[in-house]
Design brief:
The chain has 14 helices and twelve strands. It is an alpha/beta fold and 405 residues long.
Amino acid sequence: MQNNNEVLLKVENLCQYFRSGTFVNKAVDNVSFEIKKGEVFGLVGESGCGKTTTGRSIIKLYNITGGNVYFKGIRIAAGIQSYKDAIEKAKADAKEKLASAKSDAEKKRINDECNAIVAENKAKLKEADYDQKHCDRAYSDRLVSNLKEKFLPLIEKASGDEKAKLTAEYKEALHKAKRTKLVTQIQMIFQDPIASLDPRMTVREIIAEGLIIQGERNKEIIDQKVFEMLELVGLVREHASRYPHEFSGGQRQRIGVARAIIMNPDLIIADEPVSALDVSIQAQVINLLNDLREKFGLTILFIAHDLSVVKYFSDRIGVMYYGKMVELASSDELFLNPLHPYTRSLLSAIPLPDPIYEKQRQRIVYNPLAAHDYSIDKPTFREVKPGHFVQCNEAEYQEYMKILK
């Protein structure tokens, strides 16, 4: 990990709910974490715990229900629905209280409280809607401003052919900057290397699509970058004219990596990029991501099941269970001092290539009803040690502090 304290991505109380009639599926519920520039943040948990939904919400494939997502200090996603729900709840509560109110003064107080809550949430709703719609414009304006500061003084000093060359370069860069969207600085490597590639497009078209959308018009530059990316991920130029069905699973995943890298992103969300591959191919893809991370200084959100892979690859690890973040710590700290019962259960499930150890290995079964009593004292996400957070109530917090001492 690079020694960098700059926060690239900040996820704040992220909620992603899916409604089906009256039923609400809380796929991601009040999840918060930060990813610093240059680090790999691992996200682990069993199937259905909300890891992939978290990644998809960050990259804006879903409109989040609640919370905020900040990227490069700009809010790119905000939970508009949560403000609408708060307004509806305030009105419903006021209606219920007014039915039992006895005096005009009490009714006025209830109405005033309701109007204050409604006004506050309407203001937040308007602000969130504006930020979501204009985050790309704000980023584009920032890029244009930086280009003007860089090129205009140079063009003014230059003359003749040099001035013409700088002017052409400035116009081309300006064209791209105006078309650049902030969210394109986040790229995703999808879990399924087959379904994530369009079978009707050649490898060249798949990898180059992002560049074309961004405004690149020079065919020679596009071809050069595509060939460069193919060689970077261990493929050859001849593969550019082929279709996805002509490749193996590992090769298809490499094409997905090339498609993400060509956009020169600041953050890559790798959604279980090795789970569908053979063990030997998994190692190749992980080593490839490690090499690319060193070469480009990438920041990676690494979503996976395999804890041994996550430990090897990640600087910090967040553990999710049923839509909630239950533990968050550095990789070494999490494996050295796992505190939450679910984390201990996950670690006990890691197999080792040692038959003697495997015979003696005891699985820890996590039963939330038996492990916790949250009937009175509700849990919160607490810091038990610098950089080590656990979802626990006060009694559990005191117990964890004793364990750490």
